[in-house]
Amino acid sequence: MGGGRRRRRLHFSKIYSYTCGKASFQEDHSQIGRPGFSRVVYCNEADCFEAGIRNYSDNYVRTTKYTLATFLPKSLFEQFRRVANFYFLVTGILSFTQLAPYSAVSAVIPLIIVIGATMVKEGIEDWRRNQQDIEVNNRKVKVHQGGGNFGYTEWKNLRVGDIVKIEKDEFFPADLLLLSSSYEDAICYVETMNLDGETNLKLKQASEVTSFLNEDSNLRDFKAIIKCEDPNANLYSFVGTMEIEEQQHPLTPQQLLLRDSKLRNTDYIYGAIIFTGHDTKVIQNSTDPPSKRSRIEKKMDRVIYFMFFVVFSMSFIGSILFGIATKNDLENGKMKRWYLRPDSSTIFFDPKRAPAAAIYHFLTALMLYSYFIPISLYVSIEIVKVLQSIFMNQDIHMYYEEADKPAYVRTTNLNEELGQVDTILSDKTGTLTCNSMEFIKCSVAGTAYGRGVTEVERAMGRRKGSPLNNEKVIGVNLMEDYTESRPSIKGFNFKDERIMNGNWVNEPHSDVMQKFFRLLAICHTAIPEVDENTGKVSYEAESPDEAAFVIAAREIGFEFYKRTQTSISMCELDPVSGNKVDSSLDPADGTSSIDVICSILTISFCLFDDLDTYCSVNTRLESGLYELLNVLEFNSTRKRMSVIVRDEEGKLLLLCKGADSVMFERLAKTGRAFEDKTRDHVNEYADAGLRTLILAYRELDEEEYKAFDEKFSEAKNSVSENRETLIDEVTEKIENDLVLLGATAVEDKLQNGVPDCIDKLAQAGIKIWVLTGDKMETAINIGFSCSLLRQGMKQIIINLETPQIKALEKAGEKSAITKASKESVLRQITEGKAQLTASGGGSEAFALIIDGKSLTYALEDDLKNKFLELAVGCASVICCRSSPRQKALVTRLVKSGTGKTTLAIGDGANDVGMLQEADIGIGISGVEGMQAVMSSDIAIAQFRYLERLLLVHGHWCYRRISSMICYFFYKNIVFGFSVFLYEAYTSFSAQPAYNDWFLSLYNVFFSSLPVIAMGVFDQDVSARCCLKFPLLYQEGVQNVLFSWRRIFGWMLNGYFSAVMVFFFCLKALENQVFNIDGKTAGRDIFSATMYTCIVWVVNLQMALAINYFTLIQHLFIWGSIALWYIFMMAYGAMSPTFSTNAYRVFLEALAPAPSFWLVTLFVVITTLIPFFSYNAIQMRFFPMYHGMIQWIRLEGQSNDPEYCDMVRQRSLRPTTVGFTARVAARTNRINKARNLESHMIQSESFSISVRKCGM
């Protein structure tokens, strides 16, 4: 059992305040029975006639794209939506007519192979989705089977109206109405991580009228009719009524439990099924992800359209020439092309019907020239992308061992897009940072405590030229060795010998300190778990911040360990005796004070029944029992949380913690003793990138509390629309006249490797924007810590914190506020652009920082382009206080405005819009749930893996796919243009150059496998070099490998190769004796020889283009060539009725003839010389960046730091962010200062010399 047997959980259910007030009939409930609110559910009577006639959907959920019946038609429709496939379908149909230059079978078989392979891939992917559906639909749940008996059934069998029993840590199988729970007050805790990404627990409470149904037997005779809203996608609303014994009871979202949520910290609940299957809210919310296609794929479509234009042009021109030749065939009674027998032709070569013959020739030529279009291109690319994705998924360097999470490519059609990213838009919390809060500092009674150094402080130290370290901060040594050797505790990174190990009792304001840590131990909604064997207490809290506070109090010696429905129990050291720990349990051995307490507890469990008994008799520990009266919850409007408790002395205390913006104004005049110093400390903590809260309290008298409690209860149960406002007004009055205790500071640490990753991405020329909901100061400090900002970088800050706008906000004039705010934003954007213009593109780097209010106006239609111009001119951009919608709008603006590839990365549900809007969405599989991952194209576990994903895999995939497509068009042009040349040579008679099956199998077997191997395995440089020389990534951003120039270059190479092969073969075989029998070469020998040369040329061309050979590539290249010879022998051995003019052509004609082998050797070498020469000259004298890196490796200079730095310097620009650029900028400043100083010394020496000469 790991850490020992757990004690029975001590839960706290009445921690709710006004969110669980009684439901009332408000205006919404008057709509019941109207359109949109017509659903009627018969609870515990799913088999009744009334329920049956309503025909609600079952609970079977299907996420597959196809069914068994629709797979064939839908999949075929998807395949023939592609213009190339549709073209081959048309030519396949025409091949059954007399117009076809080849047999129908040879035309249709390759199309069937290609379409079939793609459909098989689609079927396998859909089958996997079906397996997931089966797993979900076959989950088991307890359902009421009558007579108070519950039995297991599968999820798919559930019906509307069924009563189910859900036990702890189980998922809800449908949308349920909460009837009761294991708690007396019928509440339960729900985790909605699968819905909204939030890990904090939600509190739900059943209606009072059903709260008694807390045992199986109580459900025996339960009957109710629920009338509610129809199925809809709104997760946060629910309107309905429940009729029990002819009494109507209102229902609210507080009673609704949504499918795929999980029951937590509750033994069991009973629920009635309201919505099933595709009617559930989570399924209603599920939308198909946006269809994303890479830029290369879109450009490839344009290349195919261009090739269609070429084919149509060639067919049109050839048909005109054919028509002219046909018309002139019969001249003065003589037939020029007598071998075509135009005198007996019905139509194709009839000189009297030349226009019709030209039209028919046009259709025939469209079929004949179809080999210009690579039929296997699409399926080959899909196969390659799937294999590339498998390699990315299995990359050990992107595997996060701690969480056992590898990278996972969810969308395979964007692989090459990873190599073209121009701008990264990143969330901060949980993406750049860990979203794991650590208590690191605090200010109590005006004194700052905590010696820890944050990442931001280290960055600030580096900026000032005096880096900080863990050993010394501001001249004060850190804790003793024994504290440094303490085991790390999640959520606690506090180091200060003045407080730890009970030393706080010796501080001047120990009474204030005691109240401070008591407040941390009491003012929260955390739930404790105590391990019986070790005595260790762990907590489940609504947020990481809250858990950090409770853990900090525990580690200092104020241990919250028990919670009931009306009380909180804690255990602390006795400040009166000042006694620390037993000498036999010396803290010098690395044991903290709380470890000592836990050790004492463990020993004492043998003597005492529980922790309460032990604390009551131990002389050095106090047990505090606090009666919990009210919890005033935290929300984004109040920005604070309070609890009202009664201590053991009968005192009424209000304990409050909240943001400094709302807390300082609530202090009493007599409670501000430490305000100035605390403010200073809070500002310092914010500068260090820490999250701060102010802690304060006040004592209440009985009359005041009684009056508050009456008003609070009245407001909670109010039936008016302004219920929330009434509650806020009541709490506002009592949360005043507070006494300041101090402030807390927690750190959301940067993830490992984030600064290094950002530095590499910046060196690669990728722009990085941060979109965060944090306040500006925190975001700026995080920017410095991860080197997005640096000293000397000019900050352009856009906000609306001007006196004029603040005055308008106080006046409440909305139209005036809007107008003034928009004008202010426009003015600040204009001033920022003026600064950029004034710099003249020089060495100055700018950073744009804008808050959420300003962003609202900056994203309006008339301002967004100006805002984008300013942002693009800056080295880094930080958007603070951004809403999820603003994140998505900024992403859309960057994507559409720049026309370049954008990548969004985030980990929470609030990042989903941004991920779906970007060209590539990267989900961080962190602690904020799976919503971002499920909406992403690729999932990784840590931000730092983005470096390898882009710079290595992105670059490789971009280069492979680009080269693969270019090569595909090259090999098809070589083949297709040879067909055209032969037909032109035969006066456009539509005569194919090759045997039917030679034509059909060229793309499928003799030239496709090597290009697939290149697309999967080829590397221009190694992964280490990709990371060492990040500027290599710019080849993808600038699209140099798939530019029109490069595409046309490969096409031109194809045309030249086809011309050389055709004419060399023609002239070598024309009018020459072919073999020892004295026979000349006929069409069969000529076509087989030319085909053999083409197979050799295109495969050896591939060998020349490959940078990184593997065994598989050798096998595919030489295997494709060998396969051609094997095919010629096998096909030629078949019956002449099938093999036609290929019958025994290889064995009897080609193989015995030396001229065949000589011609092949000569033609292949001659054809490849131009490309080889061009490649060698470019590599030697005009190398691209990857060529330079290849030279470094070739010449053995990869370990020469000076030479590598010289090459790498091309990626360091003055406007780049990252610590490498920061160091370079600092070095430049120092060098300039030295040069200036040297110049001044020289000038002074010259002046002295002049004066001496004058004397």
Structure description:
The structure is a single chain. With 1255 residues, this protein is of the alpha+beta class. The protein is globular, with a radius of gyration of 39 Å. The chain contains 42 helices and 37 strands. Helices cover 45% and strands 16% of the residues. The strands form eight sheets. Strands 16-37-36-35-17-31-34-33-32 form a nine-stranded mixed sheet, sandwiched between helices. A nine-stranded antiparallel sheet has the order 19-18-30-29-28-27-26-25-24, with helices on both faces. Helix 7 (295-327) packs parallel to helix 29 (945-985), helix 23 packs parallel to helix 25 and helix 34 (1044-1069) packs antiparallel against helix 35 (1083-1105).
Topology of this structure?
Blueprint: E1 39-43, H1 49-52, H2 71-80, H3 83-94, H4 104-137, E2 140-144, E3 150-154, E4 163-167, E5 175-181, E6 187-191, H5 193-196, E7 201-205, E8 224-228, E9 240-244, E10 247-251, E11 256-257, E12 262-264, E13 268-275, H6 281-285, H7 295-327, E14 330-331, E15 334-335, H8 354-368, H9 377-393, E16 408-409, E17 421-426, E18 433-444, E19 447-449, H10 455-463, E20 472-473, E21 476-477, H11 481-484, H12 510-522, E22 527-530, E23 537-540, H13 544-556, E24 558-563, E25 567-573, H14 593-604, H15 611-617, E26 621-632, E27 640-646, E28 652-658, H16 660-663, H17 675-687, E29 690-700, H18 702-716, H19 723-734, E30 739-750, H20 754-763, E31 767-771, H21 776-785, E32 794-798, H22 803-811, H23 814-839, E33 846-850, H24 852-858, H25 864-872, E34 876-879, H26 884-898, E35 901-906, H27 912-917, E36 920-924, H28 931-934, E37 938-940, H29 945-985, H30 996-1006, H31 1009-1017, H32 1023-1028, H33 1034-1037, H34 1044-1069, H35 1083-1105, H36 1111-1132, H37 1136-1139, H38 1145-1150, H39 1154-1181, H40 1185-1194, H41 1201-1208, H42 1219-1254
Parallel strand pairs: 17-31, 17-35, 31-34, 32-33, 33-34, 35-36, 36-37
Antiparallel strand pairs: 1-8, 2-3, 2-4, 4-13, 5-11, 5-13, 6-7, 6-12, 8-9, 9-10, 14-15, 16-37, 18-19, 18-30, 20-21, 22-23, 24-25, 25-26, 26-27, 27-28, 28-29, 29-30
Domain P-type ATPase C-terminal: 933-1183
Transmembrane segments: 80-96, 102-120, 303-325, 358-379, 968-985, 997-1017, 1047-1069, 1089-1108, 1115-1134, 1154-1174
Keywords: ATP-binding, Magnesium, Membrane, Metal-binding, Nucleotide-binding, Translocase, Transmembrane, Transmembrane helix
